[in-house]
Design a protein that fits this description.
The complex is a heterodimer of chains A (about 110) and B (about 120).
Chain A (H helix, E strand, L loop, with lengths): L3 E4 L2 E4 L5 E7 L7 E6 L6 E5 L3 E2 L7 E6 L2 E6 L9 E6 L6 E2 L3 E5 L1
Parallel strand pairs in A: 2-11
Antiparallel strand pairs in A: 1-3, 3-8, 4-5, 4-9, 5-6, 7-8, 9-10, 9-11
Chain B lengths: L2 E5 L2 E3 L5 E8 L7 E7 L5 E7 L6 E3 L7 E6 L4 E6 L8 E12 L2 E7 L3 E5 L2
Parallel strand pairs in B: 2-11
Antiparallel strand pairs in B: 1-3, 3-8, 4-5, 4-9, 5-6, 7-8, 9-10, 9-11
Classes of the chains: A mainly beta (about 110), B mainly beta (about 120).
Chain lengths: ~110, ~120
């Protein structure tokens, strides 16, 4: 299976900060990378697909970039509702895998 | 509005079986690939299984292959996951999720249900 590694595992930031989360694949996955946000006791929500395409209805402060093995999710100006756990997911192989998650906390 | 509603979770003993259901509405179910994703308590997400719209292709994670079976009834707009030989490590919230398929069995999950908890314990 393709292993997905996110960094950092947790992050403290303040409202208004610019935040970047990194996801690295164990092999090249082209642009087959998606990002999700999950709040406690809720289902995940799709943010970004195909590395950089913003899902309909998702605020434009969220953006994604990267290809091959290295990807980033950037939140340009953190809002109170953005404090959550973020997961990357590869869709390059049929056995799709997720990163371990990055917990974004309020500083 | 797309809605996915899981049911069938509960407490079972190791080795027992359980069937989960996911009732779908708000989209043309028979044309959409569907999947199951699980999340163990306090842990991350794990893709479990997927099926094409016509159920002519099915996919499984190695961790459940041979024990779980995914199916669907397009006349009832319902997705199923038959789980057998359950183990403690299968304890998780099970989500059904609609898959936007780029290629056979692969893609991104654009809608999720609220999840149903399966606990495997003696």
């Amino acid at each position: 299976d393709i292993q997905m590694t996110q960094s950092p595992s947790s992050l403290s930031a303040s409202v208004g900060d610019r935040v970047t989360i990194t996801c690295r694949a164990s092999q090249s996955i082209s642009s087959s990378l998606n990002w999700y946000q999950q709040k406690p006791a809720k289902a995940p929500k799709l943010l970004i697909y195909a590395a950089s395409s913003l899902q309909s209805g998702v605020p434009s402060r969220f953006s994604g970039s990267g290809s091959g093995t290295d990807f980033t999710l950037t939140i340009s100006s953190l809002q109170p509702e953005d404090f959550a756990t973020y997961y990357c997911q590869q869709s390059y192989s049929t056995s799709m895998t997720f990163g371990q998650g990055t917990r974004l906390e309020i500083k | 509005e797309v809605q996915l509603l899981e049911s069938g979770g509960g407490l079972v003993q190791p080795g027992e079986s359980l069937r989960l259901s996911c009732a779908a509405s708000g989209f043309t179910f028979r044309t959409q690939a569907m999947t199951w994703v699980r999340q163990a308590p306090g842990k991350g997400l794990e893709w479990v299984s997927g099926t094409s719209g016509r159920a002519d292709s099915t996919y499984y994670a190695d961790s459940v292959k041979g024990r779980f079976s995914i199916s669907r009834d397009n006349s009832k707009n319902t997705l199923y996951l038959q789980m057998s030989s359950l183990r403690a490590e299968d304890t998780a919230v099970y989500y059904c999720a609609k898959l936007i398929e780029f290629s056979s069995g692969r893609g991104y999950f654009d809608y999720w249900g609220q999840g149903t908890l399966v606990t495997v314990s003696s």
